[in-house]
Amino acid sequence: MKRLVILGGGESGVGTALLGKAKGYEVFVSDKGKIKEKYKDVLLNNEIEFEDEQHTESKILNANIVMKSPGIPDKVALVKQIREAGITVVSEIEFASKFTEATLVAITGSNGKTTTATLTHHLLKQELDVGLAGNIGDSFAKQILDKNHDNYVLEISSFQLDDIIDFKPKIAVLTNITPDHLDRYDYKFENYVASKFRVVENQTEDDYFIYDGDDEVILEYMKSHQIKSKKLPFSLTKVIEQGAYLDNNNNIIITIDNNKIIMPTNNLALEGKHNVKNAMAASTVAHLLKIRKQTIRESLENFQGVEHRLEHVLKINKVQYINDSKATNVNATYFALESMDAPTVWIVGGVDKGNEYRELFPFVNEKVKAIICLGVDNAKLMESFGNMVDVIIETQYMSEAVKIAYKLASAGDNVLLSPACASFDLFENYEDRGRQFKNAVRNL
């Protein structure tokens, strides 16, 4: 009997444990932290052996295969030992994809992947049986076990791609590449870029690769690396023969094998240039999978967006409060500030991942009237932006940050939470940060 050891008892870990057990593996789950009660209950009910707050090496190094949570870096001593012992290490998407014949759409990129994946799922679900998984929603492995959909839209991080072997999506989407998570890639941007491109490494000429044709990093990489799949770029600036582009009347034109569809963008539910790109990527997938034009158009117009991504919370005294807690890197915050159309009180800060703030300077000069730094260490923010705005204030409490913003904002202004940093210093995760912001706004 093959032994499957799972490192990390979260959503993907427990899902993989259930699928592994159903497929006849001897399963053991080990988590260095505390496993949440709801996951412990599932493991107990399914008679799966587990441990938490420790890793027992003897129970791990006898594995045939190890599935590790994407949150665990390769530098960890235990992971090095596992690899040195010659044990195969995989991610959940690699393990689970072996047990499904479904059509897989894999979406990755530094920004926009959650919105693009959610939007793609929204477009497809009107006419197809489709699951949404990966970095989002219920575990991919568990869905294969419970529902076995005909199609899956998978939001995939570079960490999940680092541990694939044979994973091969029918359609791969790369939204963009900007410096992020460099702490996990020896601070070498090229390592991170290569990691993102693993999404196409097993594809053949029968598969499709949809990517941002305006992204210099992507275009440079493609000059020196051969990609076998059919290429379908999308662009806001050039005419694309096979793929998607924006014409002079702001229509999205999508062409695949002489089959052309035209989508007006004037009624898109999501605002901002970056969302036109997300809509292009999602619509190209839908067009490939034969979703009717009318369905695509209606779905683009009624899509509600993603929680914590430029989410309009409330208007109080004519001030709009906007939750963009999901902006965990500078590029995401760039899009947020770019889309502000009124003077903005900006709440920023958290765990800095080697951020370079220079690209934000033009927007800060033009649109930001005050900055509230919400982090344990705000020195770099103070240094970067201190001379640009009249008011820059530090705090370590969300409730206080929102109260200060309330005092600083006048009628017609925006208050924007767009941290440009990870959330782990003061919050559990970006969702926790976003919910605290929303609660604080509702309590004003």
Automatic annotation (TrEMBL):
Transmembrane segments: none annotated. One of its GO terms (biological process) is peptidoglycan biosynthetic process. Residues 107-286 form the Mur ligase central domain. Gene3D superfamilies: Mur ligase, C-terminal domain (3.90.190.20), Mur-like, catalytic domain (3.40.1190.10), NAD(P)-binding Rossmann-like Domain (3.40.50.720). It is found in: Cytoplasm. Pathway: Cell wall biogenesis; peptidoglycan biosynthesis. Belongs to the MurCDEF family. This is UDP-N-acetylmuramoylalanine--D-glutamate ligase. It comes from Winogradskyella thalassocola.
